[in-house]
């Protein structure tokens, strides 16, 4: 195979990758020592061959150790991604001595893609007492301490230092990188104050039972039959008195004799579609006939400030599935096992009823990473044709988009101009048949509630309510911006 043409790389504004990590000291473009070739070249002696072999083994080990010991901390997520791109781009262009050995070069690129992860973590002042942060983050932590930082690290290095940290400073999240294969995961949650009768005991068993049934009934959803066993599910628990919270990481398998592991091509397109189909076309239709499935739908109206309705009774419906559909976004941050949220004392740990076997906590941690997918894993995909139409109802969240909000940043507080644009949008939704009586904007949750006057049409029943007023809720953080309708008396 001929060597591809050399490509001139643009230097990243970031710190350059240390030469002793990914590059050898010998450059490809250095001229050969023997400018005039010898007419007769003696074959290398056995000792020379052995010496070269040992040299190549040493170089391989050096390159491999460079990847395995990789760790760098950033203030911005985009900088971590840019740095990772530089690493992979330089390797792809063959700027390593190891390029002389094509198999080794290919192995190193594969190793980088498999080993290098991006994590985020919430800053805790106690981190300044940890040796790891003194060594790797002293310059990053100088001056103003922001709430969240990002880390590019090999999973080998990360696991080693992660288990050396004090449990109180573990506030880490795996970044599920866009377009990276990942195992099926569910984030299950329910507000126990708003759902005091929630069935905590049967929630996870019911979901897993119905998921397996769904996979057996919908064989055509993939290009092969897929299933799983209880031993393929890692069940993590961070439930507290006011909130039920579980994470399920499910390693689907083929139904063939070899039971090959399966992962989705990505979490945003393919897994997202699969979860929507499972919830909306399997679970929802069975609510009226199966009480256990009906119990999987709860009231989560936490985006409403109920103090606004002191003289009005808000109708609270159990219409939200406990499987959070908002966690299938690009570059999603998903809490790591054994981590706590900042200012919380509840750790995400293995549930009592977990069935997945593991050797020790480190082994379990590696199995808990969503995108720690092995090379021989089968990639699952779902075409857009498989996403069936939702039932027509304005109670369901509807994604909205218009040019004025193309560059909207969900972390920024809306201006009055932004609020006016959203009000105009709601008026188009009700076809200007009515008016906005009042609205309330919650900057911390990026939600707006519009109380509608002169129009009581309810999309759920297909006609106007006789006495119930309606309201529209806009949530700018979910799915890039959604709105849905509720009503009250």
TrEMBL record:
It is an enzyme of class 2 (transferase). Transmembrane segments: none annotated. Residues 37-47 have a biased composition (Low complexity). One of its GO terms (molecular function) is DNA-directed DNA polymerase activity. One of its GO terms (biological process) is mitochondrial DNA replication. This is DNA-directed primase/polymerase protein. It comes from the Eukaryota. Residues 33-53 are annotated as: Disordered. Its EC number is 2.7.7.102. Signal peptide: none annotated. It catalyses: DNA(n) + a 2'-deoxyribonucleoside 5'-triphosphate = DNA(n+1) + diphosphate; ssDNA + n NTP = ssDNA/pppN(pN)n-1 hybrid + (n-1) diphosphate. GO terms for cellular component: mitochondrial matrix; nucleus.
